[in-house]
Write a structure and sequence with these properties.
- The protein has about 200 residues and is α/β, with parallel strands linked by helices.
- It has a domain of about 120 residues: Rossmann fold (3-Layer(aba) Sandwich).
- About 35% of the residues lie in helices and about 10% in strands.
- Strands 2-1-3-4-5 form a 5-stranded parallel β-sheet, sandwiched between helices.
- Strand 4, helix 5 and strand 5 form a beta-alpha-beta unit.
- Helix 2 runs parallel beside helix 6.
- The termini are far apart.
Amino acid sequence: MGREQQGQGIYTAPMDHSYRAKMGGDNGNKGRRGAFTGAFTAGDPEPLPALQEDAASRIFAFVEDLFFLTKIQETGRKMNVKVEFVKNEKDLAERMGSNGEGNPSLIIFDLNNANARPLTLIPKLKSKLKKGTSIIGFLSHVQGDLKQKAHEVGCDMVLPRSAFSQNLPQLLRRHGAVEAVPARPAVAEPGAESVQ
């Protein structure tokens, strides 16, 4: 007797494909060719309420690449988020000065934008703006050294171009939302007695 007949080894029977006929020929996937095809893909998040014309910008971008510049502009328009494009540190300082007292929520850097000098400018901005402003950079996925240097100089998040494009609506929505300014509690002046 062979091994298969003694109960040892693996026995495989010919496959009976009649289950496909019972399931409508699609294995119960209702038109999908694979288990993951047609899986949930999140769409763009809901746009923010429309901005007033004179609203201050909360997001600035050091981007000159025409593809990304257009993509950021179009996504900002769809999300009702104002994004201002700046070329250098002086340009950013002027635009922030016209915003009043509020610091930007987000600064975006194309880390390949040599005119902006991102590795020099990011540490200056981090020391000036502190924790209230996030700095996000994007680059080619093969630029591992540049990614490491950007993190070292203070870039909060460094994304490959594809991930930046994919997450752009969520980033703009999160950082473009105008936060309500909390009411500051009244502080008694030194030497004044409190009345209860």
